[in-house]
Design brief:
Shape of chain A: globular
Structural class of chain A: mainly beta
Number of helices of chain B: 0
Radius of gyration of chain B: 13 Å
Order of helices and strands of chain A: EEEEEEEEE
Helix content of chain B: under 10%
Number of strands of chain B: 11
Number of strands of chain A: 9
Shape of chain B: globular
Strand content of chain B: over 45%
Distance between the termini of chain A: 39 Å
Strand content of chain A: over 45%
Strand order of the largest sheet of chain A: 1-9-8-3-4
Largest interface: A-B, 26 and 30 residues
Oligomer: heterodimer
Distance between the termini of chain B: 36 Å
Order of helices and strands of chain B: EEEEEEEEEEE
Number of helices of chain A: 0
Chain lengths: ~110, ~120
């Protein structure tokens, strides 16, 4: 199982770009990187998934360097509503037992 | 399309009582999971299922049992509840054969359980 390491918490202000990095030094060849967002009292919600280079959707971008030992979730121009916990998961797409790390608690201030 | 539905949403138990949490998904997903989340903590995997009639242990299975008699339902049982099982329980499902694979989970809204 690829172990992931994320910062425990981050602070930002509205309108700023936020980058959350996840380290996964022992990522396997077949592993994908998936990010989730969790608001208080809600279940986590899928944000973005990638294998290499850059992936972008309407919510975020995911940057993955060539060695794939880390990944960076980028949230452009955050708002107060982006205050949440963000989780990074690493595993192959057929993986059966998905374990979450502690996540990064993002606090966005006015 | 309701996604993943958990019942009940809230429950208070006394120590030693038993109960069952029900998870139902209407997406025809093959994999289903039960997680628990304690206040301020991440999610921990209790049990999971890779198909109808199959179950497997996760990180913290002790004190819980599960059953997947139908593909769309995954039940989590507490035979003798303990205060340490006070938590929010989340059910999730995924489609390992879909375009995004097993890593893309759809979660339910959670079931908040308090054991006195």
């Amino acid at each position: 199982l690829a172990k992931t390491t994320q910062p425990i918490s981050m602070d930002s202000y509205e309108g700023q770009e936020v980058n959350i990095t996840c380290s996964h030094n022992n990522i396997a060849t077949n592993d994908y990187i998936t990010w989730y967002q969790q608001f208080p009292s809600q279940g986590p919600r899928f944000i973005i998934q990638g294998y290499k280079t850059k992936v972008t959707n309407e919510v975020a971008s995911l940057f993955i360097p060539a060695d794939r030992k880390s990944s960076t979730l980028s949230l452009p121009r955050v708002s107060l509503s982006d205050t949440a916990v963000y989780y990074c998961l690493v595993g192959d797409t057929g993986r059966r037992a998905l374990t979450f790390g502690s996540g990064t608690r993002l606090q966005v201030q006015p | 399309n309701a996604g993943v539905t958990q019942t009940p949403k809230f429950r208070v138990l006394k120590t030693g009582q038993s109960m069952t949490l029900l998870c139902a998904q209407d997406m025809n997903h093959e994999y289903m999971y039960w997680y628990r989340q304690d206040p301020g903590m991440g999610l921990r995997l209790i049990h999971y299922s890779v198909g109808e009639g199959t179950t497997a242990k996760g990180e913290v299975p002790d004190g819980y049992n599960v059953s997947r008699l139908k593909k769309q339902n995954f039940l989590l049982g507490l035979e003798s509840a303990a205060p340490s099982q006070t938590s929010v329980y989340f059910c999730a499902s995924s489609d390992p054969f879909g375009g995004s694979g097993a890593n893309v989970l759809t979660f339910g809204a959670g079931s908040r359980l308090t054991v006195l």
